[in-house]
Every structure is written in structure tokens, then in C-alpha cells.
Specification:
The longest helix has 30 residues. The protein is mostly helical.
């Protein structure tokens, strides 16, 4: 019996002796990525624009980045966290404004453009041959 949990065993692409906890966080990354796409749908609706259908590149991003090098995964995870940090208070503010009956179209559209730009930057981290 092995006393070392599989998540502590270094992956082949890691630095020698430096464990990666990718397997333990893959589900979290996938869940957070899906939640960001759902949040973007809310923003699009508040902006009065048609919601987009997700491209295969967008839906496959968590798996693609999981297979990428460690530095790409780390940047993607930080970028997902950053994007969530932008969207959460933005949506909260938009919903508060909407609840008061005010027009949310202009600020929601600005948040939508920020989301699309940030998501494009994250997608550029994926290897082109993946």
C-alpha cells in the first residue's frame, strides 16, 4: 500500500520534486469556468444583447488547459479567479440597479466587453495544437 496520495505525486511535466495538485483542482476549475459562462449570460441579458452559443474552444477550455504545461494552467487558474473577481461585484451591482427599475444596458454592456476581452486572453493560453 502506498501512503502517498496520488495528488502529491509529481506529474511528468512538473519540476523535479515539486508536486502539482492539478487532479484535485481540475473539477474546481471546470466548475468555475462553467459558472463564469453562466454569469456572462446574465450580463448579456442585462445588456440587452443576444446570448452567444458557446464554441467548442470555450467549452473544451478546462480540459485543454489541464493538458497544457504547468505555467499555462497556473496562469489560467489565476485568470479565472480574476475574472470571477470582476464579474461577481459587477453582477451584484447590475442586479441592484435592475431591482430599482433603472436601465442596466450601458453598464452591463461595458461589463460584457470586459468579460469577452478577459475570456479571449484566457483562451489564448491554450496551446494551438491541443
Amino acid at each position: 500500500m502506498n501512503a502517498v496520495p496520488p495528488t502529491l505525486i509529481p506529474r511528468p511535466d512538473s519540476l523535479p520534486g515539486v508536486p502539482h495538485f492539478v487532479d484535485a483542482i481540475d473539477g474546481v476549475t471546470t466548475s468555475r469556468w462553467a459558472a463564469l459562462q453562466d454569469a456572462a449570460t446574465v450580463v448579456a441579458r442585462l445588456a440587452g444583447i443576444e446570448t452567444e452559443s458557446l464554441s467548442p474552444e470555450i467549452t473544451a477550455f478546462p480540459e485543454t488547459i489541464r493538458r497544457a504545461g504547468a505555467w499555462r494552467r497556473e496562469l489560467a487558474e489565476k485568470g479565472i479567479d480574476d475574472l470571477a473577481a470582476i464579474l461577481e461585484p459587477g453582477i451584484t451591482a447590475l442586479l441592484a440597479v435592475n431591482a430599482r427599475g433603472a436601465n442596466t444596458q450601458a453598464p452591463a454592456l461595458a461589463l460584457w466587453h470586459e468579460f469577452v476581452a478577459a475570456r479571449s486572453a484566457l483562451l489564448s493560453l491554450a496551446p494551438h495544437d491541443a
